[in-house]
Amino acid sequence: MSNSITLEQTTFGVIVRKQIVGLIFLLLVTLSIVWGLASTFNWMLDDQRLPLSKLVVKGDLHYVKVDDVQSALGSIEHIGTFMSQDVDQLQQALGQLPWVAYVSIRKQWPETIKVYLVEHKALAIWNGMELLNQQGDIFQADVASLNDEKVKLYGPQGSNHQVVEAWREIDAMLLPLGLNVSSLVLNDRRAWQVILSSGIRLELGKEALEERVERFVLLYKKLGSKADKISHIDLRYDTGAAIGWFPEQDLVQERTDD
């Protein structure tokens, strides 16, 4: 009986020792893995390791230059590494650039920032100082930098979409005449005024905008060659219109200048 107990105690002791050795080994392996991961992470976060040093800019760009992108990114206080840099921070910086409508950024291992930009497409000049995109939204950019002529739209704050819609409707109605809108104004009293490409000014008032433009179209067709002598037309009547003519001497002067 005594020998049996001693044998069992010895066997139990061996098992315990093996378990302790196993636990110690597992702990050492775990610590080694943690240390390795921490070292790798710290290596990646080191500014001297994997710096974002290359920039690739893509997109159908006419107004935004690569130098603008570099300057915007250079304004960030600290550009991190491939692993640490927050892409959202880069997108926010580039989203502040004039003309930029959309920004997509991704990092390419091990040191490259790839930037894809979409520019606003200017539809019109708004109140002489701002621009409207194709959706009629206001965006900030230098009006003087436009590559081509744009219609000039004016209106009270918050009326930009209403004015764009009216311009599109009026312009479509004038198309058969070979005319287009050069300038469209919605004043503070909510009355409409149009300057045509021919120089004629139309006073359209507050109501029945479409009907009054239709009336102008019919009148313009009837006037024929006399239309060149028109200075302005007041259509703020239930029927008919009041026509303002250029003085004869102005017409003579105009022909002389040509």
Entry keywords:
nine-stranded mixed β-sheet; 3 domains; Ubiquitin-like (UB roll); 6 helices; Rossmann fold; 258 residues; three-stranded mixed β-sheet; alpha/beta; 24% strand
Structure characterization notes:
It contains six helices and twelve strands. The chain has 258 residues and is of the alpha/beta class. The protein has three domains: 8-35; 54-119, Ubiquitin-like (UB roll) (Roll), CATH 3.10.20; 122-257, Rossmann fold, CATH 3.40.50.11690. The chain has a nine-stranded mixed sheet, covered by helices on one side. Strands 1-3-2 form a three-stranded mixed sheet, covered by helices on one side. A hairpin with a 4-residue loop joins strand 5 (130-133) and strand 6 (138-139).
User: Looking at the structure, what is the overall shape?
Assistant: rod-shaped
Cα radius of gyration in angstroms: 37 Å
Strand order of the largest sheet: 6-5-4-7-8-9-10-11-12
Helix content: 25-40%
- Main beta-sheet strand count, sense and barrel state: 9 strands, mixed
Number of helical segments?
6
Level-1 CATH class name of the largest domain:
Alpha Beta
How many DSSP-defined strands?
Answer: 12
- CATH homolog superfamily of the largest domain: Cell division protein FtsQ/DivIB
Q: Structural class per helix/strand content? A: alpha/beta
Give the structure's gist in a few sentences:
With 258 residues, the chain is of the alpha/beta class. The chain folds into three domains: 8-35; 54-119, Roll (Ubiquitin-like (UB roll)), CATH 3.10.20; 122-257, 3-Layer(aba) Sandwich (Rossmann fold), CATH 3.40.50.11690.
